[in-house]
Design goal:
It is built from seven helices and eleven strands. The protein is of the alpha+beta class. A five-stranded antiparallel beta sheet has the order 3-4-5-7-6, with helices on both faces. It binds adenosine-5'-triphosphate and manganese (II) ion.
Length: 254
């Protein structure tokens, strides 16, 4: 078992500015040697120069905060997010399942990259897809220039005075994204909810698109109805006078 520890593992490239590295490498996540090697490769190729702690430990993946620090001391560091699909992180007891899981997480990562590219290309706010290697995906970081990640829509807190208006306009904004995603990207998110949208610079960023499906998927319309329900339920709870779900469905597909 090997921990992701930038100090011990050398998961830190050029441009190290010192500081409390041991503290920074807060992640206690166990990474297998293959994953560590992929992360090192990414550093060697200059996609990122340092991999920091975990932004999130989810069911399917861990997301790490990474930075690209240039040799020019004055240049501002660029923040990145690196998503590592999980079944390959866990050390499996069941050896027979190992290769199957590897193949599966690789497929998920590929799907996420492909979907993210399509969504990003239409101008819908989402992380910029940057690099994919097996089950490791590097993307743009959604958050402040100091490296503070944007909150999920679920965790956003508006002041009492502005909440009503903010949620109403975010709802309208999202309806547009859902329609463009369907009409132009020809995708249904399929896990759209307040958990998979980040609030940043007063806009909604769509994330977590590895499970998104194309129109021709046999269950795409069923998934679209679920997305609509999740979104409607959330904004209703926030006091928004939402469209009837059937009307929203029609708006998106026609
Ligand atoms: P879960 O299994 O919990 O659903 P997940 O494996 O589906 O998680 P994501 O939803 O893609 O993974 O990301 C998990 C969390 O990591 C997000 O909720 C968000 O807080 C953070 N995150 C993901 N991508 C980025 C990014 N590009 N910039 C900033 N934070 C991010
Ligand atoms: Mn998620």
């Amino acid at each position: 078992k090997i921990k992701l520890d930038t100090q011990q593992s050398g998961l830190q490239g050029k441009g190290d500015r010192g500081g409390d590295r041991a503290d920074r490498a807060t992640s206690e996540q166990v990474l297998d040697p293959r994953t560590r090697m992929l992360l090192l490769q990414m550093i060697n190729r200059g996609i990122v120069s340092e991999i920091h702690g975990c932004l999130s430990t989810g069911k399917e993946a861990n997301v790490y905060h990474a930075m690209s620090v240039s040799e020019d001391e004055d240049a501002a560091p660029i923040h990145r997010a690196v998503k590592v699909y999980k079944t390959s992180i866990l050390v499996f007891k069941d050896r027979d399942n190992k290769s199957n899981n590897r193949a599966m997480v690789k497929l998920w990562a590929e799907k996420e990259m492909r979907n993210l590219r399509r969504i990003y290309a239409t101008g819908i706010p989402c992380p910029e897809p940057l690099y994919l290697r097996l089950h490791v995906l590097a993307m743009g970081f959604i958050g402040s220039s100091k490296g503070i990640p944007a909150p999920r829509l679920k965790d956003v807190e508006f002041s009492r005075e502005e909440a009503e208006e903010r949620y109403r306009s975010l709802y309208i904004e999202l309806l547009g994204y859902m329609r463009v995603m369907y009409q132009t990207c020809r995708l249904v998110h399929a896990d759209l909810s307040e958990y998979n949208m980040l609030y940043h610079k007063k806009r909604l960023y769509i994330i977590d698109v590895s499970q998104s499906v194309e129109h021709d998927h046999p269950r795409s319309l069923e998934f679209l109805r679920m997305d609509i329900k999740n979104v409607s339920d959330f904004f209703k709870r926030k006091g928004v006078d939402t469209l009837p779900e059937r009307a929203l469905f029609q708006f998106i597909v026609s």
